[in-house]
Amino acid sequence: MKLEGKSLKHDFFRFIIPSLIAQWVFALYTMIDGLFVARGVSELALSGVNIAMPFVTFLFSVALMFAVGSSTVIAILLGEKEEQKAKEVFTQNLVTIIFVSLLITAAVLWKSDAIATFLGATELTAKYVRTYITTIACFSIFFICSYSLEVLIKTDGYPMKATVIVTAGAVLNCILDYVFVFILHKGVWGAAFATGMSQLIVVILYLTHFCSKKTHMKPVRFTFSLSLAWRTVKIGLSSGITEFSAGIVIFLFNHAILTYLNEEFIVSYTIVTYVSTIIVMSMAGIAQGIQPLVSYYYGRRMPRKYHLLLKYALCFGLVFSIAAFIISGIIAEPLVNLFISPKLSDLRSASVGVFRTVSYSFLLCGVNIIVGGFFTAIEYPKSAMAISLGRGFLFVAFSLRLLTALFKGNGIWWAAVLAEGLCLTLTLALFLYYGRQARI
User: Fold this and answer.
1) Long-range contacts of 25-29, Cβ-Cβ distance < 8 Å, separation of 24 or more
2) CB within 10 Å: which end of the chain, N or C, has fewer?
3) pLDDT at residue 317 above 90?
4) pLDDT value, residue 415
5) Half-sphere exposure (CA, 13 Å, Cβ side) for 188?
6) Can you give the pTM of this predicted structure?
7) To 5 degrees, how large is the angle CA 31–CA 163–CA 46?
8) Interval 239-297: pLDDT, tens
């Protein structure tokens, strides 16, 4: 297997760096759409895309739930030298995500108006939200399969190949966005269609690997196992929630902004969202990068090695968090100017302040995500789930409710910082409990 290389530290960076690049590229998909929509359509259309964004995040979270669950089981089986069983798990996962994707597409096309309203679409943004989610829904199968196969190809021992494919998809997305939005003037539909087409091409590229002689995960005949499906979901659910947390946070913040401020601040938060999504997905990339290695050594009963991998990840995540905070302060103004036209000078100024306030949360999120991912990789689903639910919903909802009650609209922007701080307290408590049990 390609999970064991020259040294543990070498393997750590061999998996982490491609995983980080892949996460950045996935985050850039939506950022590119937003940039083309803001400049090619209007700031109002950008607000509509942001309101629709929780749906896109939902697709990625479903993909990640099945991918992390199945890849954890596969890596453990490979560590136990059960390669045939690993192939059966891979095949069942592929069939399952195709079926789930088709259900999601049908549900969204059937209830698009209700879903747009639920997401927070207003009279001015409803048409943009509806157009974006229905177009993306038609490509659900490719969104879910591409993200899922990206995780699985790394577990197969080819992290750099995943990075190359995902980067090719992002470049294609940029080209298609330009063609459909600026040349053909297809607006929000064009941006969504371009993203969907790029995902389709990415899936085709992944399938060429899994149909080749190099892979350990060829599709094989299998008998569907409900217990295996539950094990996969149970393991991957916390990672799926972590991924979906970005969408839940966007949903909660959009509703708070519409309640306490006004619609134009959705644009401010949209810009913040793009950067915070990159930071969160970077931390998820670190967690996903070590996951195959941690699960593999967990399967081989080698705790010293998987604990050392966690140490590497936490150190790397801390350095990354500090760098992200510093860089965010530097790029706040030029990034805001990229999305908002010069005639909206007041909105530009307010958006820069919002950006710098929310960036304090970047210092805290790394430990929460990385430790949660570690618990997933060693099959501690309850601890992983507690962190994911706390960070992705409970602490955000509590912080928004508390700070808006105390400070009205001004309290919205500090809610992310408070939520990450509360989650960090929970994470450290769970890790100390684990440490006493594992004697580390």
Assistant:
1) 25/163, 25/166, 25/167, 25/169, 25/170, 26/60, 26/147, 26/166, 26/281, 27/274, 27/277, 27/278, 27/281, 28/170, 28/278, 29/169, 29/170, 29/173, 29/195, 29/198
2) C
3) yes
4) 93
5) 24
6) 0.71
7) 10
8) 777 677 767 777 888 889 888 887 778 888 888 887 887 888 889 889 888 888 888 88
